[in-house]
């Protein structure tokens, strides 16, 4: 840990994982990113803005939001369809690629290949991944990876993340994030009844968020 950046140490120490002294971690990759807080249901737009900032795109949350509205991808900033993000990025001369998240290692390989990853998941009250079938769908940006060294599996690996609801860098379970992502099957029924959200017509997220992530 002595070679880790200060914010990485702080994120790890804040996490529940630091209390397990049997686990040892190696920082494999980390890209520092400035936090951006969301104003309203803009988690996807804000995560995208943070990703664009690291690539020195001269743009703002407001610019991305206006372009997404113009393309009819959103109403308030919500993004319930990962498939539109590559085209949205293209409007700002930034390449983004849609991936199927089939194996837990898919995300790891992308991080090791110098990408940062936008990932949809269900967020719990503490912002960590949970299993709500998509009713608490949220976006985060993965830009770091901690490999757990005492296990040959990836079950205890951590990812370093930022999202629009906290200024702090987070250290989340990669397995929890993977499991949360793959159970995104339907939007919150309340959202489907509200006209100020751009939600898939039948409310299903199986084709739009489930098992998907974006690399930039």
From TrEMBL:
<dbReference type="Pfam" id="PF21646">
    <property type="entry name" value="ACTMAP-like_C"/>
</dbReference>
<comment type="similarity">
    <text>Belongs to the ACTMAP family.</text>
</comment>
<keyword id="KW-0031">Aminopeptidase</keyword>
<protein>
    <recommendedName>
        <fullName>Actin maturation protease</fullName>
    </recommendedName>
</protein>
<keyword id="KW-0645">Protease</keyword>
<dbReference type="GO" id="GO:0006508">
    <property type="term" value="P:proteolysis"/>
</dbReference>
<dbReference type="InterPro" id="IPR040043">
    <property type="entry name" value="ACTMAP"/>
</dbReference>
<dbReference type="GO" id="GO:0004177">
    <property type="term" value="F:aminopeptidase activity"/>
</dbReference>
<keyword id="KW-0378">Hydrolase</keyword>
